[in-house]
Design brief:
12 strands; alpha/beta; single chain; L-2-Hydroxyisocaproate Dehydrogenase, Chain A, domain 2; 3-stranded antiparallel β-sheet; 9-stranded mixed β-sheet
């Protein structure tokens, strides 16, 4: 079995320890020869890189080479897979993304509304440079991007690299939804094949087919949500996070108002923007929570292991944490507060590497997949994945309500990318004004001008 060379781009990400631990746990099914961590922030990457030295020494002695670096040639040369998780501007800029619109009574969220707009501009510029660098050293590597805001990044990749079919944009939110809610039908995510359509963080499940019987189990899940008992039945033990508990509970409300499909949890920002603003604290946003919790916890975890110099025989021993019951990747991927994030990326890489033809929800260009929306729209739909890449499954026409929402949201995403690449203030204003969470032009202009000032060199010059 071939052993692969893998680079984690964004080595200082708090998701990187999850990915590295999972690599140890799936080494029989996805063996690697070389692992590289790359980040442009040497200080941030250092503790995670040092942690990797301890981890791989004890749990992956077969690994031939492991390095962490800020050098592009070292990181990208002769790679089979590049797993990309970057955050242009870091969490401090995310805080600005969220707090500026909240001052004006507008949604302040990482990827939705104005926050996604500002983050998207930074991400498009960073991803353009990054992909060019990777391609300089590894023309054929699979670039699996899970950097946010994925919809805007995917649209930019389509425009900037139109012939590069080895760039795949992926998100784990829809998978999280399946992991949480499939038990309402006595199923696991791996037991069903999804039918889903939309844009990233903006879509709907319309069927979940049992792989053995072909039965659609989504009606059972919807009925449980409509009964009002789903929260009690699930217990939400998968998420030790009040923010996500609120979000998944809020899904019941969306299903009661629109009882024919299971929406992506992020639809709450577009369907109930006033309620979501009222639920927000303009002085302490999700960015603050992440910095005070996950950010501190993951780096403390890495530093503790580096200080110990070992994991085996300690409370961090992977064998103790997983034992004989960890018989699949989903059960294994609970490291460092992680859920589906690491698992889904590895499952995708395996399907590409071994031509498995598995089904994934990915962002692909609309080429007749949904015939009654704009051709070229970067849809998130079910795709069959093999060594040939991602092949979307035809979905068919969609209803007027969803069509209207999708086309408006896509106009915002498209305008954001065009504004970034052209340096157009006019298109920035149009993007925010067409966004469902903003609408008002004067408000859009106020938020835009504050973003331009706050982002400084992270933004291009808009004229």
């Amino acid at each position: 079995m071939k052993k692969f060379n893998v680079v984690f781009v964004g080595g200082g990400s708090t998701y990187t320890p999850d990915m590295m631990e999972l690599m140890c746990l799936v080494k029989e099914t996805f063996p690697v020869k070389k692992i590289v961590l790359y980040d442009n922030d040497e200080e941030r990457q250092e503790p995670i890189g040092q942690y990797g030295e301890v981890l791989f020494r004890e749990y992956y002695p077969e690994l031939e080479e492991y390095v962490y670096t800020t050098d592009k040639a070292t990181a990208f040369k002769d790679m089979d897979f590049a797993f990309v998780q970057i955050r242009a501007g870091g969490l401090p800029m995310r805080e600005q993304d969220e707090k500026i619109p909240l001052k004006y009574g507008v949604i302040g969220q990482e990827t939705c509304g104005p926050g996604g707009f500002a983050y998207g501009i930074r991400s498009v510029l960073a991803m353009k440079d990054l992909i060019e660098d990777i391609r300089r050293y590894s023309p054929d590597t699979w670039i699996l991007n899970y950097s946010n805001p994925a919809a805007i990044v995917a649209e930019a990749c389509k425009l900037l690299f139109p012939d590069d079919h080895r760039i795949i944009n992926i998100c784990d939110v829809a998978i999280d939804i399946m992991d949480v809610f499939c038990p309402l039908a006595d199923k696991k995510r791996q037991d069903v094949e999804p039918r889903y359509f939309g844009l990233n963080h903006f879509g709907w499940f319309t069927a979940l087919y049992d792989k053995e019987t072909g039965e659609d189990v989504l009606p059972t899940i919807l009925q449980e949500l409509l009964s009002g008992n789903a929260s009690d039945k699930l217990g939400f033990t998968a998420k030790n996070d009040d923010y996500w508990n609120f979000t998944f509970n809020h899904l019941e409300k969306m299903v009661k108002d629109y009882p024919y499909s299971l929406p992506n949890t992020y639809m709450q920002y577009y369907l109930y923007p006033q309620e979501m603003v009222e639920h927000s604290d303009p002085n302490y946003t999700r960015a603050n929570y992440v910095m005070d919790n996950r950010e501190k916890n993951v780096f403390a975890y890495c530093r503790e292991i580096v200080k110990l110099g070992k994991m085996k025989g300690t409370k961090h021993d992977l064998d103790l944490r997983y034992g004989e019951n960890a018989d699949n990747e989903t059960e294994k991927a609970s490291v460092a507060n992680n859920d589906a994030h690491a698992t889904y990326i590895i499952e995708l890489a395996e399907s590409l590497a071994y031509n498995k033809h598995d089904i994934f929800l990915l962002m692909v260009k609309n080429d007749g997949v949904i015939p009654n929306v704009e051709e070229g729209m970067m849809l998130e739909v079910a795709c069959r994945v093999g060594s040939y890449g991602a092949q979307p499954l035809a979905y068919g026409p969609i209803g007027t309500f969803e069509k209207g929402l999708l086309e408006s949201q896509y106009a915002y995403e498209k305008l954001t990318v065009e504004a970034t690449l052209e340096g157009s203030y006019q298109k920035c204003l149009q993007a925010l004004a067409v966004n469902r969470t903003v609408v008002d032009t004067d408000l859009a202009k106020t938020i835009l001008d504050e973003y331009i000032e706050a982002n400084g060199q992270y933004f291009p010059t808009f004229s």
